[in-house]
Amino acid sequence: MTAGALAAATLVVTVCGVGGAAASRPDDAEDPHGSVPVLPARFAQQQVRWTACGTDVTPEPVPRAECGWVTVPVDYAAPDGQTVKLRVSRLPAKDHSRRLGSLLFNPGGPGAGGAADVADGNWRAGDRARARYDLVGFDPRGTAGSGQIKCPDGVAQGPEDPPRTEAAAERTFGDATRRAQACRRASGAVLAHMDSVSVARDLDVLRTVLGDAKLNYTGFSYGTFIGQQYMKLFPDKVGRMVLDGVVNPAADIRQVARLDVRTADAGMRRYARDLVARGDHRLGATAGDVVRRITAFAGKLERKPLRGADGGEFTDATLSAYLSTAVTSEEDWRRLTEALVAALAGDPTAFERLDAEVAGEDGGEKLTPQEEQTEENVSLSMPAVLCLDSPSAPKSPKQMLDTADAAAEQSPLFGRYYAWQMIDCATWPIPPTGVVEPIKAAAPVLLVSYTDDPNTPLANARAVHRQLDHSSLLVRGGQGHGAYASGDPSACTDRVVDTYLVEGKLPGRVADCPR
């Protein structure tokens, strides 16, 4: 989501689906919107041939992990046309005699595959849920093992030096358009059907094929958006659903970019207050002084960039990119201060060292070829999903430039940087199909959020909580993204979520787990 938060866009549509627990045929109910024909029975009747997971999924599967394929239509409006095979993985319930069914998992992205996360044990759910459910991961259509799309020239990224003139904006648009058209030519029909509504329809095929009467689901980040689409499309098929790190479907991509800016500005203010509270006055005597000095420094860099160790320019945009990550991560604040002090003295190479130090803390290990491929796949798949789901990106160089200028007026440090993250959707060759609106559903679902989530802010979860009348909101104190069964475990959070998944008991309208 962005880089970190543009992965929080929007959408919604309608569909009819496949029904029945171990059903061998689709539901008889007609699509109330009349837009999607009933699926041919062969999709509901297929059986997964589970086998040991191969190295194409993960080089190190956990014991008992199994993998297979499920076939779905590329276009649900033409189900007799082309199909795509979805890669799925399964980790059978530990307590098989008390098995509750399948718990499907999506890690978000959008564009991230979930098959490997389940097969290699990277995601295991809480202990109680792990015992009672088969954990099922899947790679969404067009991602990872499920017919990964191809973009020979890559996809447009937010430019390192955002354009300030129409001529520069036109050049950036031209390059982004060329890349996007190459994606369209190389990827085939699936590129036009990577929207989250199609993925939600896929979930219902998976539910039926797995033999579950209702969908039990845990979605993280953009996976929460997919879950909300499912709730709208198949309200009577919703089982126990956990949405962790919530995306708000009522916010369009411009609103998301503005929320990213507000989140980064708030992070900057928190950083400044913490710095002064610790008695460090090298950047200013008050928090306001710190923010003003850094903002003035950015303005100076816009007029006269510094030179990095490689001779490249260190501009205001470079500073914004570093700050957008560092100010929302408390563990990086000490190193950020040292880098800022050095840069203000004319040495921006400290920011490069900051990158190296963070990489060292993350293990500093060279990525395996499979890990590199996974990162590339996500970078390609993200715009393919977002740009179908999000109908409101600027559509011309002038619109993009005006949007960025207005954002910079509101936030000199972050506005222009986040506005130009929309360049991929501004130039995507396939028209969006998404609709921006709140989702109203009666299902008793559990929403989960950190108090300080830099990617999907708590404000998102609160907004969706208001939209879903029978939802509960669990707030975990602290900073992070993805609070349940995380690498930084919270016994309270895991206990509350597991109680819901295993017993069906929500914790009340709002519940808190302390930091």
Secondary structure blueprint with pairings:
Blueprint: H1 41-45, E1 51-52, E2 66-73, E3 83-91, E4 101-106, H2 115-119, H3 127-132, E5 133-138, H4 166-187, H5 196-209, E6 215-220, H6 222-233, E7 238-244, H7 253-277, H8 287-303, E8 306-307, E9 313-314, H9 316-326, H10 333-344, H11 349-361, H12 369-389, H13 397-410, H14 415-419, H15 423-426, E10 446-452, H16 458-467, E11 472-479, H17 491-503, E12 510-513
Parallel strand pairs: 4-5, 4-6, 6-7, 7-10, 10-11, 11-12
Antiparallel strand pairs: 1-2, 2-3, 3-5, 8-9
Helix pairs in contact: 4-13, 5-6, 7-8, 8-9, 10-11
Question: What would your notes on this structure say?
Answer:
This protein is α/β, with parallel strands linked by helices and 515 residues long. A ten-stranded mixed β-sheet has the order 1-2-3-5-4-6-7-10-11-12, with helices on both faces. A two-stranded antiparallel ribbon has the order 8-9. Strand 6, helix 6 and strand 7 form a beta-alpha-beta unit. The longest helix has 25 residues. It is globular and about 65 Å long. It starts with 40 loop residues before the first helix and ends with a strand.
Strand order of the largest sheet: 1-2-3-5-4-6-7-10-11-12
Q: Span from first to last CA?
A: 24 Å
The level of helicity is: 40-55%
Oligomer: single chain
- Radius of gyration, in Å, reads 23 Å
Tally of individual helices: 17
Encode the helix/strand succession as letters. Answer: HEEEEHHEHHEHEHHEEHHHHHHHEHEHE
Question: Unreliable segments (pLDDT under 50, ≥5 consecutive)?
Answer: 1-34
Average pLDDT over all residues: 90
Based on Cα principal axes, name the global outline.
Answer: globular
